[in-house]
Amino acid sequence: MYDVEAVRRDFPVLSRSINGKPNTFLDSGASAQKPQQVIDRIMEIYTREYSNVHRGSYLLSEEITSEYEAARKKVQKFLNAESEREVVFTRNATESINLVASTWGRKFLTRIDEVLISEAEHHANLVPWQMLRDEIGFELKIFKINDDGSFNWDEYRRCLGGKTKLVAVTGMSNVLGTIFPLKEMIRAAHDVGAKVLVDACQYVVHQKTDVQDLDCDFLAFSGHKTYGPTGIGVLYGKAGILAAMPPYQFGGDMVDVVTYQTTTFDEPPARFEAGTPAIVQAIGLGKALDYMQNLGMENITAHENELVDYMHSRLSEVKGAHEVGTAPGKGGVFSIAVDGIHPQDLAFILDKEGVAVRVGHHCAAPLVRRMGYESLTRASFGLYTNHVDIDRFIEALLKAKTFFAAH
Amino acid sequence: MNIEELIENFEFLDGWEDKYRYIIDLGEKLPPLDVKFHTDEWKVRGCQSQVWLVPSKRPDGSLHFEGDSDAMIVKGLIAIVLMMYSDKSPAEIKAVAVDDIFAKLGLSEHLSPSRRNGLIAMTEKIRAYAGIL
After folding, report:
1. Which of A130, A202, A322, B90 is the most buried (most CB within 10 A)?
2. Is the CB of residue A202 less than 8 Å from the CB of residue A212?
3. Per-position DSSP letters for A186-198, written without gaps between them
4. Which chain B residues are closer than 8 Å to A407 by Cβ?
5. Does the structure show a pLDDT above 80 at B57?
6. What DSSP string runs through A332-372?
7. Which residue has the higher pLDDT, A316 or B117?
8. Which of B20, B28, B48 sits opposite A343 (nearest CB)?
9. ∠ Cα A229 A234 A238 (to 5°)
10. CB-CB contact of A344 with A359 (8 Å)
11. pLDDT tens, A383-395?
12. How far does the CA of residue A274 sit from the closest CA of chain B (Å)?
């Protein structure tokens, strides 16, 4: 039995009051709160364990290096990667995607190729490919999704072809909540000889992720969305593919032999981690992944799915509220529009009621426009979200409706 | 009404509901902006709502501003900003202590960069106009 109230007690910020109201935090899709276990671990490191990694010939450095590498091992287990050498630490998912674009992309993409992405991508998995296209001259193709936000096999198959070199897709839309059928999509992409990058920022938070089962070539996620610190992200890449990629940035910790005139580079993942890494953040991320796995990814999924059903039923009580993105099996992301109320105005009222949501285009402006809006109000769930959060959100919506109806 | 009177009126308002109601009223009283100005040229960037600002220069050298937004509360906040800046000389515009005024109104949160409601961008644009017009 998933005890969400016990889980909530692990997150100290949730007990803080906001504008005199209980903290109703429904913006975990932007960044998640941190459990005490992660906060404590970060404190411990700075208090007793800190030094640089990979270079000191003393106890502190040995210890912290083994903790840092243990965190890599934890990511490997979290993703079920074959080896920890397939796990590269980055700053965030955006950097992970940029890393693939500027190293793999520059080396392997040519002007006669095609890169395929979906309509549902956020800017991080759109703009890097636009920039690379402008540089190399390949065609950037975008496959359509259905009006309800669901995946469209015909569209995907129509866009996939012999020229497709890379498919870069989100696992779960940060606006619509749609979960793509990744495994089948990846198989179809491999059938035409394309590599696949999964932007798993939202995906990994809400369900068990198995990169070997998915068979994806790259997968990117951010630590701050998985209840870990900011400033740490992950790029998973298949060993053979990473080994063929040139370095991303240059400096210390990624080199093999250096003379004044020439340098040879280290093997992955070190090749892609130039300079002093985000040591404490990586170890904090490891702790956060432990936290999620202790709760059990299947349990988290079941809990959130139940909340999705509850939100659907409560939202249907609010006349004039439209849910944008209603794909079957969607995850805990609700983008809504309310008749006659501008999202910005709505956000002012929700904030006064202690409800934290995100307003705007959610770093996915083309997608929000494609769905017929300029701006949306988004409530997103985390593993600590409970029924009371949803009730408060609905009550705040009703209050806003009454407030603006008077004008 | 000038800004001092507005600050006085605000002191009588209890709670955010009354305050926002009053702000919305200010927005509704704002002279309507001709829709021909609802274009990218006059748009203030970096806002979660659409915000437009149109400057013009008066014969006496003072600057007149018109503004609009598609969001009600933002439009009211624009009315407050225009109350501070419109029909003033460039020197007076530069002397406006916007942070202090918003603090006195209890609206400082609306000048926070994370809100992206365009007020900061708007005041910056007004100051830029005061420098070049």
Report:
1. A202
2. no
3. HHHHHHTT-EEEE
4. 21, 24, 28, 72
5. yes
6. SEEEEEETTB-HHHHHHHHHHTTEE-EEE-TT-HHHHHHTT
7. A316
8. B48
9. 165
10. yes
11. 999 999 999 999 9
12. 32
Q: Cβ of B54 under 8 Å from any chain A Cβ? A: no
Please check whether residue A327 is in contact with residue A177, taking contact to mean a CB–CB distance below 8 angstroms.
yes
Q: Phi, psi at residue A263, to the nearest 5°?
A: -145, 140
DSSP state for residue A271 in the 8-state scheme: G
| Fold assignment, B3-132 | Sufe protein. Chain: A (3.90.1010)
pLDDT digits (tens, 9 = 90+) for A111-149: 999 999 999 999 999 999 999 999 999 999 999 999 999
The rounded distance, in Å, linking the Cα atoms of B82 and B52 is: 12
Give the burial class of A130: count Cβ atoms within 10 A of its Cβ; 0-12 exposed, 13-18 middle, 19 or more buried. middle
User: In terms of Cα–Cα distance, which of A236, A215, A228 is closest to A90?
Assistant: A236
- Helix (H), strand (E), coil (C) string for B30-87: CCCCCHHHCCHHHECCCCCCCEEEEEEECCCCCEEEEEEECCHHHHHHHHHHHHHHCC
> In angstroms, what separates the C-alpha of A373 from chain B's closest C-alpha?
12
The residue range of the domain holding A394 is: 4-30+296-405
Q: Using CA atoms, how far apart are residues A372 and A36, in angstroms rounded to an integer?
A: 41
- The tokens describing A192, both together, are 């035409």
Cα–Cα dist A326/A269, whole Å = 39
Q: What is the pLDDT of residues A68-104, one digit of tens each?
A: 999 999 999 999 999 999 999 999 999 999 999 999 9
Residues A124 and A271 both lie in one domain: yes
B71/B101 Cα distance (integer angstroms): 22
The CB density around residue A279, as the number of other CB atoms within 10 Å, is 22
Q: Is A376 helix (H, G, I), strand (E, B) or coil?
A: strand
User: A264, A294, A324 — which closes off a domain?
Assistant: A294
pLDDT averaged over every residue in chain A: 96
Using CA atoms, how far apart are residues A351 and A23, in angstroms rounded to an integer? 10
Please spell the DSSP secondary structure of A287-304, one letter per residue: HHHHHHHHH-HHHHHHHH
Cβ-defined contact of A342 to B49 (cutoff 8 Å): yes
